[in-house]
Design brief:
Chloramphenicol Acetyltransferase, alpha+beta, 5-stranded mixed sheet, 24% strand, 10 helices
């Protein structure tokens, strides 16, 4: 049995209205051999006991219980409810069709950095078998190994002293909202894709004193302001921030992503990209200081302690609408999980998309880097392509050619968190 500490609030926030799930969508060069993929997943399952769990209740609160049943494979993520009887109560499942594998997981359990080692293991076992090749992938966790203790470590400290004060912390106020966004969580999610050559984009990024995430943030700010020239409110980017380094828990599987806020005043849209990129990096540097994460965690610990004073059912009712409110404070969101580290596996991968239902602000740009390309997925709770189209126009003005894909609906799983009778 595993006690929910840092993850407790996320589990009680999850609902039909806001399932908080991830679909890591990977397209391979060849059609999937379902039987061999199932064998690879079953073998990997023994190496990752923390992903082989189901919901339980102990002392009137959610806990994670061991679950030795096999993972379930579906034809589509649409309609799948993680944590239900149809997924064998697992919080992780697969959807397979043609040459595509969807890795479906509950975001309250883990995040991109937490699930990628598992994905790497499954792909390594599968592709080694189907290609018959010796694949150089660097470090990879394999069946038969004993999981490392640091993988299980709960990232939250027992307490944060009151003497710790925030450093350069920014809380957005009077923020511009995209008029197209309904601000109602988890309606249909639309996606538009932009593919950029990694070498060319990184060369531009370095010359502009930026990083992939800050450059996307700066370009999207300019995009929004150019489409709403009369706007006088702050345009705020909520940027996903991995706290593993700050909390010295680099190997933990638990979901530990935080959000830092990059605030742009409307008149900053006239600044050259090099200046805007430098300002963006400065905001990231200030807000990613350890003190800020510790202050946020101190608040989260206090909220958790208050939750524990309530009954199980009272907690569920109290947090029913909290997720949408907490994610809706920014104008848009940007998330970059970093390089995949898949090595030779990338030869067999044509695209990779980390999709999630956690938008909240109207637009979330998920950035993935694989096989010499950056893939930018514009996830939206509205259909219009005018933001992604204008974004591409601005990139082209800077000498970076790109064109958005046709829009499509993202298949995302739901959540049930059923406790087996």
């Amino acid at each position: 049995m595993m006690i929910l500490n840092s993850a407790l609030t996320a589990f009680y926030m999850a609902s039909d209205a806001f399932p908080f799930t991830i679909n890591v969508n990977i397209n391979l060069t060849d059609p999937i051999d379902l039987q061999k993929l199932q064998e690879a997943a079953r073998a990997a399952q023994s190496r990752y006991p923390y992903f082989s769990v189901q919901m339980g209740i102990a002392d009137d609160t959610y806990v994670l219980m061991p679950n030795s049943r096999p993972y379930v494979f579906f034809e589509t993520a649409e309609g799948v409810k993680l944590g239900s009887a149809e997924t064998n109560y697992h919080l992780l499942a697969f959807a397979v069709h043609d040459s595509t594998i969807d890795f479906l997981v509950f975001h309250g359990l883990t995040d991109g950095h937490g699930i990628f080692p598992f994905i790497k293991t499954v792909l390594y076992l599968y592709l080694s078998e189907t290609t018959g090749q010796t694949l150089n992938v660097g470090a990879v966790r394999l069946p038969g190994e004993t999981p490392f203790a640091p993988e299980f470590v709960d990232p939250y400290p027992a307490n944060v002293p009151s003497s710790v004060e925030p450093f350069g912390r920014f809380v957005p106020e009077h923020v511009f909202r995209l008029p197209e966004s309904t601000q109602e969580p988890c309606k249909k999610t639309f996606v538009y894709e932009i593919t950029l050559p990694e070498t060319a984009f990184m060369k531009y990024t370095r010359e502009s004193d930026g990083s992939p995430a800050t450059m996307v943030s700066a370009f999207l700010f300019k995009t929004i302001q150019s489409l709403h020239p009369d706007n006088t409110d702050l345009i705020s980017c909520g940027m996903a921030f991995d706290r593993r380094g700050v909390l010295h828990t680099p190997d933990t599987f638990w979901s530990i992503a935080g959000v830092i806020h990059l605030g742009y005043k409307p008149d900053m849209a006239s600044l050259p990209m090099t200046t805007l990129a430098t300002i963006s990096r400065g905001m990231v540097f200030l807000q990613s200081q350890p003190e800020n994460s510790l202050v946020e965690i101190r608040g989260a610990l206090a909220a958790r302690d208050q939750l524990l004073k309530l009954s199980h059912n009272e907690r569920k009712n109290a947090l029913a609408n909290r997720a949408a409110q907490s994610l809706g404070v920014d104008s848009f969101h940007v998330s970059y999980v970093g390089q995949s580290g898949f090595g030779d596996l990338e030869r067999y991968i044509t695209s990779l998309h980390p999709f999630t239902s956690a938008t909240g602000s109207g637009i979330l740009v998920e950035i993935a880097a694989v096989n010499g390309r950056f893939i930018l997925s514009f996830l939206q709770d509205f259909r219009s392509d005018r933001y992604v189209s204008r974004f591409c126009e601005l990139l082209c003005e800077e000498g970076i050619d790109c064109k958005p894909s046709a829009g499509s609906i993202v298949p995302l799983p739901g959540i049930a968190l059923e406790v087996e009778k």
